[in-house]
Amino acid sequence: MQRIFCAGALAASLLCATQGAQAGTVTVLTSFPKELTTAYQKAFEAAHPGIKIEILNKNTTASVAYVRELPEGQRPDIMWASAPDAFEVLARNKLLQTAPEAVNKSAPAKIGAYPLNDPQGMYYGQALAGYGIMWNTRYLQAHKLPVPKEWSDLTRPEYFGHVAISSPSRSGTTQLTVETILQGEGWEKGWGQLLAMMGNVAAVTDRSFAVPDGVNNGQYGVGIVIDFFGLAGKYSGFPVDFAYPAMTAVVPANIALIAGAKNADEAKKFMAFTMSVPGQQILFDPKISRLPILPYNLLKAPAGYPVPQDVAARAKVQFDSNVGEARYQVVTSLFDQMVTFRLKELQAATRAIHEAAKALKAKPNARGNELLAQARATAYSPLVGEANVKNEEFLELFRKNRRDVAVSKQLTGLEQIWADKARANYERAQQLANEARSLAK
Amino acid sequence: MSTTTTQPGTAGLPAAGARPWLALSGLGPWLAFGLILAFLLCFLIVPVGMVVYTAFINETGGLTLGHFGNFFAQSVFRESFFNSLIVSLASVFFASVIAIPLAYLTVRFEFRGALLIQTLGVLPLIMPPFVGAVALQLIFGRSGSMNLLLNDWFGFTIPIMDGLVGVTFVESIHYFPFILLNLVAAMRNIDGAMEESALNLGARGWRLFRRVIFPLAMPGYLAGAALVFVKVFDDLGTPLVMGVTNMLAPQAYLRITSVGIDDPLGYVISVIMIGFSILALWMAARVMKGKDYATMQKGGNSLQKRELSHWESVLAYGWILFVLFVTLAPHLGILLMSFSKVWSFSVLPDSYTLEHYATVFHDAGGMIGNTLLYCVMAAGLDVVIGTAIAYLILRTQLPARQWLDYLASAALAIPGLVLAIGYLRLFKGVNLPFTDTPVVTTWVLIMLAYAVRRLPYALRSCMAALQQVHISLEEAAQSLGASKLSTIRRIMVPLMAGGILAGFVTSFITAAVELSATILLASAQSQAPMSYGIYLYMQSISGRGPGAALGVLAVIVVGLGTYFSHRFVERSRVTTKT
After folding, report:
1. Which residues have CB under 8 Å from B338's CB, separation 6+?
2. Which of B144, B250, B384 comes nearest A5 by C-beta?
3. What is the pLDDT of residues B192-221, one digit of tens each?
4. What is the CB neighbour count within 10 angstroms for residue B63?
5. Can you tell me the mean pLDDT for A118-146?
6. Min Cα–Cα distance to chain A from B137, Å
7. Quick check: bond before A306 cis, omega within 30?
8. Which residues in B lie closer than 8 A to residue A3 (C-beta atoms)?
9. Under 8 Å between Cβ of A107 and A275
10. pLDDT tens readout for residues B336-376
11. C-alpha dihedral, A12 to A18 to A19 to A20, nearest 10°
12. Residues of B with CB below 8 A from A142's CB?
C-alpha cells in the first residue's frame, strides 16, 4: 500500500511544474514583511519587464541555514535583512559575493560613525534604522503613565511590569541597542542602567517582532524597538508612538548578493534598484516607514519624517561596530544568564527595591537608604568586569569552537557561575531592600 | 482491572492465537516491515542523525559524551527539565478534565448536537502557530478583553496567561482534542452488552463509569494522554510566544537557532527530549501490557444510548457550553481580529472591515489548495503506515517489531527545524528521477516532513483501534476461508475504521498547521501552504488582519474536512446496520 502512495507522490511531483528555475527570475531571501517586499517587487517588475522577482520569506535563522545547506547554483540570489550578524556569518562562510556596481554613489559613506557598507564590500546598506522607545498611548493613559523619552526613564518604578524587549541573543537589532547603551554610558554604568530597566520588563521575547506586536495590541505599554516598527504601527492607525532617545545609533539594514547565485546579473539590477532614487522613495510608504540612505534633497520626504542624518548627529554615542562585534558573544550570553533566564528573580528584586524606595521616601531613614543603595548595587551590576571584556584571551574563549568538549565545558561552567551568581545577587538584593523597607516603618 | 470480555485463554494473545496462521503467511509481514523500516530510515533516522550527531562528537570528529556531562552540570537545564515535566503532567490532568466528560456525555447518552460538539471539540487543534497564543492574549492576556472587563467592573485581573500557569492553560485547551478524539473512538467501540450487563447488575452513575466504561476505553484514553504528554513536553511554540524560556524545548531551540554558533548543547537537549518521549510512550505501553481490551462485539449500533434526567442534562449542557466557550475563545479572538481595523487595548475592536478577506482571497488562493494536497497525502501515508505498524506489532511475531513503534514515535520529539536541515543535507544534489529538478526545490520534502512529523499521532490511534479488535473475529474469517489479505481488508480495517479515521484527522489537522519545517523547506511562494502564509501575514506591523483572515479560512477548511469525515463514518455505520 505504501508503494502505491510513494509512486503517487512521485508521479504528482513530476507533473508539478518546477518553479523558480527559469532564467530571468531573481530569488530574494528576506525576513522583511510582505508589504515592503511586495512594494519593491511590483515597482521593479514594472520598471524591468522580463525580470521576475520571487520573494522567499524566512526568518533570519532559517535564511542562514537555508543558504548554508544548499549547493552552489541552487541558492537564492539575494539576501535582504536587518540583522548585521546574519550577514557577518554568511560572509565568514564565503556565502556572499561582492556587487560593487549595484551601489549608489550618491549615498554617504558613513551615517554618524557607522560605515554604510561592509568595509569588505560583501553587503551594502539599503535603508537606515535607529533604535528607540515605542509606546501604546491608550495603555499609558489607562495606567496613568507618563510618556518615556530616555532609556533612564524606563528604570523608574511606575514602569514596573509595563516594558518589553527582545533578547539580544535572538535579535540582532536588540543586540545593537544594548551595545549602544553600553558604549554610550560605559560598560559598568551601562549595565547598571540596562539591568535596572530590565527589572521593569514584563517579558523578554524571542523574536524582535513580538515586541512591537505586543505594544500595538496593548499587551505591553512600552517596547524597546527599531524605529520602523514604531513608525509603521503609528502610520497604520494603531494608537502608538515612537521616539529616539539621546543614546541611539543609526545603522543600516543590508542587502547582499549570495555566492553562487543563479542569476547574478539580474540580481544586481534589483539591488541597484533598491538603492536608487525610486527605490528609496518606496521606503516612505506609511506601511513601510523606513529611513532612506540617500540624502533628502534627492527624495520627496513626507513632512515631519525623521531625518537619519539629524538623528545620528543628535545621538550622543559614537558607535564603534568593531567593539560591539568583538564582545558580541559575551554581551548576549551575559544578558541571557542575567536577564532572560533569571527574569523572575530580577523582577522580584526590582519590585522589592521600588517598594523600599517608596517607603523610605515617605519616612526617610539613613540606615534604610544605605541598605537600599546596597540592594541596587548588588542587583544592578554586571558579573563581568570591564577589564575582562577588553582582555583578548577572555574574548577568544567565546569565539572558539564549541564542539571542543573542553571549550564547551569551560563556557557552560562560566555560564553556570553567572547564573548562580545572578540568582544569589537578586535574592540578596531583595533581602536588603526588604530590610530597608522595614526600617522605614 | 478484569473487565475484559473473554477472560479465559485470551491473556496470552496475540502470541498464542496468531501462531497457526502466521506460519502460512510468510513473506508478507517481512516485506511490510522492510518497507516501513526503509521509509523511516530514509526520511527520519538518517536525516536527523546527520544533524544531531553533533551532540556526540568533539571538534576533531571523535566520539565523546562530554557534551552530556556539560549539559547536566548546568542548573538552568535541570530547572528546565523539571519545569517541562511539571507542565506536561499538569496539562495531561487538565486536558483529561476537559475531554473525559465531553466524550462520555456525547457518546453514551442521548445528546442533542453530539456530533456538532465532537467536531467543535476538535477545533482547538486547528490553531495555526502564533495565532492561538496571540488570540488568547487578546482574550485572556494582561490587557485582554476579559481582564479589561474585570478591571473595569471589579478592579482586579486574573494573570492566567503568565509563566508556567499560562503555558499549562494554553497547552491544556490546545491539546485536549487528542484525548477527546481517541476516547470517542474507543467508547464507540465498547461492546454495548458490557454496559447493559453492568446496568442490570446495578452499577449506576459514577460507579458504572469508573468500573466499566472508563477501563474499557483505556487504550484510547492512554493513547491520547501519552500524546498530550509528549506533545506538551516537546512543544516549542507556546512557551516561546508566552515568553517562558526555562523549559527544555525553548532551551534547545534557542541554542540551535543562535545565528552563527554551532552549539552542540542544543542537539544534546534534542537527544534527551527524544529519549524522554520514547520513555513516556514505552511506559504507556507497559501499563497496557498483559491486559486485554478487545471485545467481540463492536459498539455503535448495538449500543443503547442512555437518557439524562432533567437536572443532569442542565448540568451537562452547562458544563459543555462553558468548556466550549473557553476552548473556542482563541477562534473567537481571530474571528474578531480578521474583521477588525485596529484592535488595541480595548474589549472589542474599534471598527470593522472586510478588506482583509479581499486581500487574502486575492493573493492566497493557491495556498489553500497546497495545504489540502500536502496534508491529505501526508495523513493518508500516515494511516497506511500506522495501520501496518499496528498490525505488525499486535498480530505478528517478527523480532524487533516494537522498534518500528519507537522509531516512528521519536519523530514527536524532533524539532521541525532539525528534521528540515537534515532533509536539505541528505537530499543535497539529488534530482527527482528522470528530471533535472533538485528534490530540495519541490514540495515533496514538505509533504514527507509532514508525514514523518505527524506519523506518531496516526500510529497511536491505529494501535489503540487494533487493540480493541478481538483476534477471534479475524480467526473466524480465516477459518471460513478468507485469505490473509482479504481478512485485513474486509474484517480488520473496517473494524478499526473509527480509530483509523481519528488518526487521519489528527495527522491531517496538525499537519495543516505545521510551521517550523515548512519555513525552511518552502523554496518558492507558489508551493507555500497556508501555515506559511499565516506566518507571513502575521509578521506585518501594519496589522495582522490578513493573517487572522487566513487563519479563519484555515480553521474553516480543516474543520469542514473533519466534519465530513465524521459524517462519512457515521453514514457507513448506518449502512452496515441496515
Report:
1. B356, B357, B545, B548, B549, B551, B552
2. B384
3. 777 778 878 877 777 877 887 788 888 888
4. 9
5. 92
6. 8
7. no
8. 35
9. yes
10. 888 988 887 788 888 888 888 888 888 777 888 899 899 99
11. 150
12. 345
| CB count in 10 Å sphere of residue A137 | 17
User: Which chain A residues are within 8 Å of B525, Cβ to Cβ?
Assistant: 54-57
Backbone region of residue B488 per phi and psi (left: phi > 0; alpha: psi in -120 to 50; beta: other values):
alpha
CB A211 within 8 A of CB A225: yes
Q: How many CB atoms are located within 10 Å of the residue A23 CB?
A: 10
Would you call B314 helix, strand, or coil by DSSP? helix
All three cell numbers of A434: 526588604
Q: Choose among B75, B259, B541: nearest Cβ to A60.
A: B259
CA quadruple A85, A89, A95, A99: dihedral sign? positive
Distances (CA, A) of B244 to A249, A333, B172: 30, 17, 16
Burial class (CB in 10 A: 0-12, 13-18, 19+), B476: middle
Cα–chain-centroid distance for residue A438?
41
B residues 61-90 near A, CB within 8 Å?
A: 64, 66-67, 69-71, 73-76
Judged on CB neighbours under 10 Å (0-12, 13-18, 19+), A148 is: buried
Q: Of B515, B272, B522, which is closest to residue B416 (Cα–Cα)?
A: B515
A12 CB neighbours in chain B (<8 A) are 377
DSSP classification of residue B155: S
Say if CB B109 and CB B306 are below 8 A apart.
yes
The better pLDDT of the pair B16, A392 is held by A392
| CA distance readout (Å), A350 to A197, A201, A224, A384, B208 | 9, 10, 19, 21, 55
Which pLDDT belongs to residue A249? 80
Judged by CB atoms closer than 8 Å, whether chains meet at A9 and B444 is answered as: yes
Q: What is the ipTM of this complex?
A: 0.75
Q: Rounded to whole angstroms, how far apart are CA atoms B107 and B114?
A: 7
Facing residue for B345 by CB, picked from A8, A209, A218: A218
DSSP per-residue string spanning A316-385: -----HHHHHHTHHHHHHHHIIIIITTHHHHHHHHHHHHHHHHHHHHS--HHHHHHHHHHHHHHTS-SS-
Pure H helices in B141-191? 145-154, 163-188
- List the end-to-end C-alpha distance of chain B, in Å, as a whole number: 35
Q: Give the residue from chain B lying closest to A205, CA to CA.
A: B243
Strand A201-205 relative to strand A163-166, pairing: parallel
Question: Residue B571 has which C-alpha cell?
Answer: 453514514
Q: What is the pLDDT of residues A322-364, one digit of tens each?
A: 888 888 889 988 999 999 989 999 999 999 999 999 999 999 8
Q: Which residue has the cell 519593491?
A: A40
Q: Would an 8 Å CB–CB cutoff place B343 in contact with chain A?
A: yes
- DSSP state letter for A70: S
Specify whether the CB–CB gap between A357 and A157 falls below 8 A.
yes
Contact (CB<8Å) A33/B250: no
φ, ψ of residue A229 in degrees (nearest 5): -60, -45
d(CA B553, CA B551): 5
Determine contact, residues B418/B274, Cβ cutoff 8 Å: no
